[in-house]
Amino acid sequence: MGHIRIQMGKDGDKSEMYFYNGFTAAQMGDPYGLLKLGTKKLKQLITRGHLVDIAAVKGGMMDAVQEITVADVRAALQRQSMQESDIKQGDAIFFNTGWGSLRMKNNDRFNSGEPGIGLEVAPGSSARIFA
After folding, report:
1. Which 3 state secondary structure label does DSSP give 86?
2. Contacts for 80 with CB less than 8 Å, ≥ 6 apart
3. CA dist., res. 65 & res. 83, Å (int)
4. What is the pLDDT of residue 131?
5. CA-CA distance, 97 to 57, in Å (whole number)?
6. Average pLDDT per 10 consecutive residues for the chain, totaling 131 residues
7. How many Cβ atoms from other residues are within 10 Å of residue 54's Cβ?
8. Which of 8, 44, 122, 129 has the fewest other C-beta atoms within 10 Å?
9. Chain centroid offset of residue 113 CA
10. DSSP of 13-24, one letter per residue?
11. Is the Cβ–Cβ distance between 39 and 3 less than 8 Å?
12. What pLDDT is stored for residue 1 in this prediction?
């Protein structure tokens, strides 16, 4: 949970960068690791997972600021011959955006941000794709 955040203020302002449960980036960690939301107390997770290939729908790697939309998810599921009803409560959903291909090849770009889901797709939003 320590890597998903939203920037509410100016870029890089750690007092306006929020994580799960309202923790700010300034509260999250130090050079030695996470102080909040780490996995050290997390019990084993076992669940069914689904990989949704957004990069295939987009025709290649997404850009750092691109948002995965409900339309993108639906197009990827259709391309993969999957139905929305195949995804059940408690399942893990992983999105291939192509961004991982930069790791260890262009770390400056890899660490500059990433594409991802917005509130439209995020669990708990009113327009959530998965009921």
Report:
1. helix
2. 52, 53
3. 27
4. 45
5. 10
6. 75 79 85 82 85 97 93 96 91 93 88 85 57 45
7. 24
8. 44
9. 11
10. -GGGEEEGGG-B
11. no
12. 60
